[in-house]
Design brief:
By secondary structure, the chain is of the alpha+beta class. It contains 17 helices and 21 strands. The protein is 32% helix and 19% strand. The longest helix is centred in the last third of the chain and has 25 residues.
Length: 520
Amino acid sequence: MIARRLGYRVALIERGRHPRFAIGESASPLAGVIIEQLADRYDLPRLRPLSAFGTWQRTYPNVVCGLKRGFTYFKHETERRYETAPDRSNQLLVAASPNDELSDTHWLRSDVDHFLVREAIALGVEYLDEVTLDSVEWHADNSATLTGMRHGATVRVRAAFVVDASGPRGFLSRTLGIDERGFDGYPQTQALYSHFVDVARCDQMPDFAADGIPPYPIDDAALHHVFDGGWMWVLRFGNGVTSAGIAVTESLANELRLADGEPAWRRFLARYPSIAAQFADAKPIREFTWMPRVSYRAAQAVGDGWAMLPSAAAFIDPLFSTGIPLTLLGIERLARVRLKPDTTSYCEATLDEAGHTARFIAGCYAAFPRFDAFTAYSMFYFAAASFSEMQRRLSPEHVSGGFLRAADAGYASSLQELSPAVCAPGSDYFDRIAQVVAPINVAGLCNPELHNWYPVDLDDTVRAAHKLELTPEQVRAALEFANVASTPHVSRNRRDQPADARRGTPVSGPPSPAGVGGAG
C-alpha cells in the first residue's frame, strides 16, 4: 500500500489463499504508534484504526482481534499447582495501556491479513494468489523476472524491485542460496501450537488469585506461563478463540517428543497442574503445528534489486511480541528511501536488531529457572519499549536508539553483560539493571514497592519528561492533546469481571491513573 502511495506499480504474489491461518499474532504499543505514523505519512487513513483496540472495534468490528492490556507472566513448578506468592515474586504484570480504548491488540491473522490484502487491492495492487514461484532471473539493470506456476499455467512477473515477505527460509533465501547464520549463544528451541475454544480464564481460577486489584484483567494480555526450559503463550481473541502454544529448549522438546503433536501437548499439560486445569475443557479447532526449529537468521537481508522484510530475514521467538514491531520498523525504513535501500545500512539495521533481540531472549531462557532474575532482566525490554513509544509520540524529532536500544552501544553492552546466559545474577542484580535502565525509564519500572505489578501512571511519564528532552508541562499538554488523560475506561459486559472465588477480591476495577505506553 505504501509502495502504491509512492507511485509504484505493485504486484503482490501469494503462495496460498486468504483467509488462511498464520502465526505471529500479538502487537505492542510501539507497533501501534508506528501504524499511526505510517498511516498519516502515506495517506492510509483506513489503516489507522488498527493502532488501538477502541478504534479497531468501532471501525472494523468484523475483523477479529483480541484485547491486550499488558504482559502477564506466571512461574510454574513441575507437578505443583500454581499459587501466588505473598510477595508476588512468582508473577509479573506490566501494563501496556491505561484502559481498553487505548489498548494493544492480538491479531487473528486470518482476518487481519485478509483485510489487508483487500485494502491493497482497493489501492490498485495487482494480486495473484495460489502461485508457486520457482525461480528469479536478474537483469543488467538489477530488475528481476520471477517465474512460477498458477493453476497449471506459467506466471512471469517483471519487477524493478523485489520485497520478500515470505517468512524465514523463504523464497529469496532458497532461490539465491543465502546462507543461514544462527545467533551466537542462542539455545536451540522448538514450538508446538494450535487454536482452541473453551480455554478457562486465569482470573476465574482460585490458583491465580492474589490480594489486591491487578493493573488490568490478567487474561486480557499476552499471558505467559513460564517454566524451566521454556514458556507458553495464551492469547485471546474476541470471537472466543484462543491461540496457545509452547516454545521450549531442545532438551525439553525431546523429553516431550514434541514432534508427536497433540500427544506431546497432553504430556506437557500433565507436568503443570494449573495449566492443565486452565485447558481441561479446551478443544483445539485446528491440527497442532510443530516447529522443529524456531529461530532463524539469514546471512544477508538486502541486495541489488531486492530486500527482505525483517520477518523474512530473521525470526527469534514469540516471547515479548517482537515480530510485528520489528517488521513495521523495516517497512518504515524501506518506505523512507522509496524502496531503494542503501545496501549496508538496511542490512546492518535489520540483522543487528535481530541479533540484539536474540541476545535478550537467550538471557530470558537462561533466567526462567530463577524467576527473580527473569523479572529483573525483563526490565531491559520494558524500559526500552516504553521509552521508544513515548519518544515517538511526544518528541519524534529525537527518536533514536533502534529497536530495544540496539543502536545504543552502552545499553546494548549492558544488556549483554548482565544477561543470565553469561553471568550469575547476584544479590545486587536488580539494582544494577535498575541503574542501567534509569536514563530511559519513563514508566515507573524497577520499583520494588510495586511487587511486580506495574500499572500505567501518567505521573511517571511527567516526572520523566527530561529524559525525553521535554518539560513536564509539555508532556502533560501532549498527553492531554492526544486525549490520553481523559479517555474513559471502556466497560464491556464480559466474563472477565467476577469476584475472586477464593478471597472475594474484585479481579478488575477502574484503571490506574491514566497514562500512555507503559510497555510494548
